[in-house]
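Reply to dn_fold:

You asked what the input looked like. This is it:
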Amino acid sequence: MDELEIKQNKAKKMMLWVGMISMAMTFAGLTSAYVVSSTRADWLSQFQMPSAFAISTVIIFLSSMTFYMAKKALMAQKLNSAKTLVLTTFLLATSFIYFQFRGFGDIIAQGYYFTGAESSITTSFLYVLVLLHLAHLFAGIIVLLVVYYRLLKGRYTGSNTLGFEMAHLFWHFLDVLWIYLYVFVLLYR
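and this is what came back:
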């Protein structure tokens, strides 16, 4: 690797970190607003968190494990294992999305909507947090698909694994972010 390529790789990693820090700050602001809003008279303190969100939390944690194992397989040049594990991560991600929407269905079944007369500030915050995380997760799924495509084409060879490593880091960030959001909403009532 020449000096210019090393500098470009460092710049790419730095841009990813800046993006993730920006996303973290967005969610920090939203959770701060959640805390401030919880003092309102119309705040639901007895709101029942749908179990689908707990299931999705386990699923996203498992997806982090499979992507981690995929990276280990790639570094060991076990490309078929890496492909299978990235595909498994993708399948877990789609399962995560399914359970997120099932959680929304459970919230609606409890009689709470995003807006309108049947909405509450509590569940509206939950909708915003989950939907914003899902938007970032869709970006992560696109990244997973690109990584899988590049694995199929044999683009990750030798020391040329930057794209995979950045995808790996971003995926773990999304997973940690969801776990933070879930635990925060679960514990802060």
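The two ends are 52 Å apart (CA to CA).
Hope that clears it up.
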